[in-house]
Amino acid sequence: MKILVLNCGSSSLKFQLLNMENETVSARGLVERIGKEDSSVTFCMDSYEKIKKEIPVKSHKAGVQIVFDFLTSDEFKILKSKDEIDAIGHRLVHGGEKYAGSVLIDDDVIQTLRDCSVFSPLHNPANIAGVEACKELFPGLPMAGVFDTAFHQTMPDYAYMYALPYYLYEKHHIRRYGFHGTSHRYVSQIANKLLGREDTRLISCHLGNGSSITAIVNGKSLDTSMGHTPVGGLIMGTRCGDIDPAIVTFIESIEHLSPEELDDLINKKSGVFGVSGISNDFRDLEAANKRGDKRAKLALEMFDFRLKKYIGAYTAIMGGLDAIIFTAGIGENDPETRYEACNGLEYLGLKFDVEKNKNIKGELAEISTSDSKVKVYVIPTNEELLIARDTKDIVSSINSK
Ligand code: ADP
Q1: Quick one: DSSP state of residue 82?
Q2: Which of 3, 178, 189, 288 could lock onto 388 through a cystine, CB 3.0 to 4.6 A?
Q3: Is 388:397 a contact under the CB 8 Å cutoff?
Q4: How far apart are CA 185 and CA 225, in angstroms?
């Protein structure tokens, strides 16, 4: 079975073509800056060098068409015709309270995406554009949707409610939704395999440009750090994470900022970038810290402190801890952040393997000692694979009916 996985962002489109017989990727690529003059398309295949072309891509629909043209082109011969694709799996961002799992995409799902666009104004419309484009180009081909929010729908009300007037939840559905659900689900499944059981208490740290941390009990999300939007929780590349909410209205009045400017401030100008004034990239910050830059040092210390605070809080709400997982750009590649997060947790029964940790970048590894009661894993995330697996399951179940 061949499954195309599409991830349509606000101005980009990422794709992977997976062969599900052996779960291998036949081709992958990225269309960037859709709708802009300098849009470009990058394709990668095992047997070829990466190909990057500057081509005008006006819309997501045009982007999807370019992907199909590439896959079926005489030059690369990845597919003889588009009929070889058995199904499409879409990464969808916000499914509100309606979806707690992956779904076969129908008009109802598209309507839910529309209804939830108010929560995710950049991503949901792009997701809809991707789905609509595929519907037109592939009439009748089954498509599945895998929501970023779905995994966190198991959170109990006392975890997802905010202490705001109750009508705001009833009328406007303001609550914690959480994000990165597909990544947290993927890495937690692997951690449970490594632990050899399902009745586990895990803390999954997805640390990338956007970062979130999730408490997972027996495979289910109990609490997660991102909230109604992805701004809450951990300190991120350019997002502020948790702050006193009254600061926002205070800044609004003293700096005379519009709602759009405030949104830009907390989303794009804050985080480790805002504190350091240097970069959102941990490689730059660590280099600056080594040169003695005080604000880079402060930004990194703030990030580590917040992360450890969440690990402590999540251990408490789960009544103990079996494993911590590190994933995404920072989690997979940055030994210093992993060390700082785990250093001093010996009282939990965690024995960190300092030497092993130093050499682990982008690979599956256990970085606690063999006698550590609490395990620490680095697990590279693979959201596309999980989307493809869910799509395969959904399509197989309709085919068998
Ligand atoms: P996104 O949230 O955009 O998907 P990623 O998960 O790809 O982001 O993470 C990107 C971030 O990972 C970079 O901004 C950088 O901070 C961090 N990163 C990547 N490689 C390294 C590395 N070798 N050392 C430290 N940090 C790294």
Answers
A1: G
A2: 3
A3: no
A4: 15
Tell whether the model's pLDDT for residue 47 goes beyond 70: no
Ligand 1: residues with CB < 6 A are 208-210, 237, 280-283, 328-330, 333-334
Task: Give 133-157 pLDDT, tens digit per residue.
Answer: 999 999 999 999 999 999 999 999 9
The structural domains of the chain, with segments of one domain joined by +, span 2-152, 196-383
At residue 207, the 3 state secondary structure works out as strand
The fold of the 2-152 domain, in CATH, is Nucleotidyltransferase; domain 5 (3.30.420)
Are 2-152 and 196-383 in the same CATH fold? Answer: yes
Q: What is d(CA 19, CA 169) in angstroms, rounded to the nearest whole number? A: 43
The pLDDT of residue 87 is 97
| Maximum C-alpha span of the chain | 65
Each residue's pLDDT tens digit, 57-114: 999 999 999 999 888 888 878 898 888 999 999 999 999 999 999 999 999 999 999 9
pLDDT of residue 38 exceeding 90, the answer is: no
CA 282 to ligand 1: nearest atom? 16
Closest CA to 385 of 101, 1, 18: 18
Cα–Cα dist 194/110, whole Å: 37
| Residue listed under structure tokens 């804050």 | 270
* pLDDT tens-digit series, residues 168-220: 999 999 999 999 999 999 999 999 999 999 999 999 999 999 999 999 999 99
> Which amino acid belongs to residue 270?
S
Candidates 389, 160, 203; CA nearest to 313 is 203
The residue whose CA is least distant from atom 12 of ligand 1 is: 329
Q: Which residues of 6-26 are buried (b: 16+ CB within 10 A; e: fewer)?
A: bbbbbbbbbbbbbebeeeebb
Cα–Cα distance between 382 and 395 in angstroms, integer? Answer: 20
Look up 148 and say whether it is catalytic: yes
Within 13 Å and on the Cβ side, how many CA atoms surround 235?
Answer: 24
CATH class name, domain 196-383: alpha beta
* Integer Rg of the chain from CA: 22
* pLDDT, tens digit, 9 for 90 and up, residues 263-313: 999 999 999 999 999 999 999 999 999 999 999 999 999 999 999 999 999
Which residues 6+ apart lie within 8 Å of 27 measured at CB? 15, 16, 17, 43, 44, 45, 70, 71, 76, 78
> What's the rounded Cα separation, in Å, for the pair 358 and 208?
19
